[in-house]
Amino acid sequence: MLSEIESFVNWVRRRNPQARTWKDYQYDLNQVVAFLGDLPLEKVTFREVDRFVNAQVAEGRKPTTINRRLATLISLFTFLSDEQPDLVCPVLPHRHHLREPQRLPRPVPEPELAQFFAVITDVRDRAMFGLMLRCGLRIGEVAELRLADLFLDEPRPRLVARGKGSRERAVYLSPQAEKAVRAYLAKRPEAPSDYVFLSYQLDGLSTTAIHKRLMGYRAAAGVTLTAHQLRHSFATQLLQADVPVTTIQQLLGHRWLESTQTYVMANDPMVQADYFAACEKLEGWL
Hints:
This protein is mostly helical and 286 residues long. The chain folds into 2 domains: 2-96, Tyrosine recombinase, N-terminal domain (DNA polymerase, domain 1); 110-270, Intergrase catalytic core (hpI Integrase, Chain A). The chain has helices spanning 2-15, 21-36, 46-58, 63-80, 93-96, 110-118, 123-135, 139-144, 175-187, 207-221, 227-240, 245-252, 257-266, 269-281, and strands spanning 150-151, 158-162, 168-172. A 3-stranded antiparallel sheet has the order 1-2-3. Helix 1 (2-15) packs antiparallel against helix 2 (21-36) and helix 7 crosses helix 11 (227-240). The longest helix has 18 residues, at 63-80. The radius of gyration is 23 Å and the shape is globular. The termini are far apart. The relative contact order is 0.09.
């Protein structure tokens, strides 16, 4: 199995060397091999997948994690089917796929946002987390940002973000975000690297390094938030400002409108108005 995994991971890496997808695939498939052993792929049946799923559940893995690993296994078998048409994928979605909880987005309350940014004095970090909050960038999009992606001197300053699947989108900078980015660029060290945000080794920052910075700041501020919650806050604030959901979809880089609709479900002003209007009419509800 290991040799086939290596071929598959190398193929994914060649297709999109900029993304870290190949690393995620490699990690997930290594988890499968660590449990099943280096079996020939034709001997990996649905019963082995049963055992793997049961073991993952027993370890307390989340349904999202287990389903992602199963999806990676399906991708491996799909890749190999070109050379081995008789190879049968052992993952049966109706049998192995776990139900995932549907959670509404949880934006960060304004007082906690203020506390968080109050402890960030580093101009680089203020710019990074400011782009997440005011432009809705994912942590990976911040890490991958290059100098050539910045268009600060246009009438409406913008940048180009590379989202999931390396899909590019235009992201406009609010005056606050533009100010933070310009303040950082004015102090950015000279370096051969073209990444916007540099580490102390004068190369690009990893998502892990950015996450560690966030963890340190939130501990200092006494708040609990994630990088993705900053993105949630961006979308929620736009929705509250009556920005059309299709516009928010484009700004977030969502491929499907249903992904953006979750923000409407969590913050639908019409639902709120109708409910509280009914409360005023119903005896004993006030």
